[in-house]
């Protein structure tokens, strides 16, 4: 898993953790939406990442955390390292943490998702380029206090898009590989602490290496927990991007969900020169030029092709997406 983050300390460990079935950055993702959703996305140039506590499948996320904690209990290394690792994981598994999840699919023309998420076939599927980084588009001014701004931006952790994890067996495959990585690092740190991590994160003792490893590992476990889903939904081939934001409440908006009021952040594509930015504030020059990396709009199987194509192309031009392709679904949705 590769984290895009300004904090090298949090990036270097998890970047080398071996994870199967990685999402290739050259492959697009697909977001199924309603006509109202399409209007909102194009006019705001954003998609939403919802607060994890407001997800429809929150119970699955909780089950993922439960499996992770059971796994760690069964593989408890003991000693100070084991204690710190367990405490760090419990702290990460805290519903008050500001974790947000954006969801999409790897399937461009899926009957089930047309029916479930795109107005029964009268909606749209949007194709996005995943080689472009997504950042938070904050509808608020940059914090005037430099300390508040630093806390908000340095506490932000964004993962690249990655496959959802379906079922206990697949989760344990990821956990086994991650645990192997942790064990390998511990052995390396015991032999020579200075080689345990990336060159930008040097430690001089085995104890320091253990503490650092115990502190960094929960970010990897978190990335697994928030991608965990029931195996019954595997046909959707979902991909997710997770974000952890602390100290930037002004960047969070709210909406009504089936579970009450829940938070969300708006994501937009970042220009090449700002690929490692975390939050783009409203009063900055970059803000007004943010655009989604939209490549294609696919019309749902129940939309009339000729009239629907004309309307969508006009909408795309009016919102600044002149070069986006418009195609139609090949699914026969009854």
Automatic annotation (TrEMBL):
Organism superkingdom: Bacteria
Against InterPro entries, the record matches this protein to: DUF2971
**Pfam families found in the cross-reference section:** DUF2971
| Protein known as | DUF2971 domain-containing protein
Q: From which organism does this entry originate?
A: Brevibacterium sediminis
């Amino acid at each position: 898993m590769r984290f895009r983050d300004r904090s090298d300390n949090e990036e270097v460990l998890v970047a080398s953790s071996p994870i199967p079935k990685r999402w290739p950055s050259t492959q697009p993702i697909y977001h199924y939406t309603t006509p109202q959703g399409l209007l909102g996305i194009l006019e705001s140039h954003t998609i939403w990442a919802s607060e994890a506590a407001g997800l429809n499948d929150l119970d699955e996320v909780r089950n993922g955390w439960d499996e992770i904690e059971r796994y760690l209990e069964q593989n408890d290394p003991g000693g100070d390292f084991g204690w710190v690792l367990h405490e760090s994981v419990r702290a990460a598994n805290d519903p008050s943490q500001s974790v947000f999840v954006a969801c999409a699919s790897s399937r461009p023309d899926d009957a089930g998702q047309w029916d479930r998420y795109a107005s029964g076939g009268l909606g749209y599927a949007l194709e996005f380029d995943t080689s472009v980084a997504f950042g938070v588009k904050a509808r608020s001014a940059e914090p005037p206090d430099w300390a508040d701004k630093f806390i908000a931006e340095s506490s932000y952790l964004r993962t690249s898009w990655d496959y959802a994890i379906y079922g206990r067996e697949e989760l344990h495959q990821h956990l086994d590989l991650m645990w192997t990585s942790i064990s390998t690092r511990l052995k390396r740190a015991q032999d020579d602490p200075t080689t345990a991590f990336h060159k930008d994160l040097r430690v001089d003792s085995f104890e320091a290496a253990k503490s650092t490893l115990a502190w960094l590992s929960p970010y990897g476990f978190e990335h697994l927990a928030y991608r965990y889903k029931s195996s019954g939904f595997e046909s959707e081939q979902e991909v997710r991007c997770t974000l952890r934001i602390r100290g930037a409440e002004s960047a969070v908006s709210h909406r009504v969900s089936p579970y009450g009021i829940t938070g969300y952040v708006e994501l937009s594509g970042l220009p090449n020169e700002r690929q490692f930015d975390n939050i783009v504030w409203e009063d900055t020059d970059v803000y007004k030029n943010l655009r989604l990396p939209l490549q294609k709009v696919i019309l749902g199987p129940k939309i009339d092709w000729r009239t629907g194509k004309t309307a969508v192309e006009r909408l795309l031009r009016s919102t600044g997406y002149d070069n986006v392709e418009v195609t139609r679904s090949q699914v026969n949705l009854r």
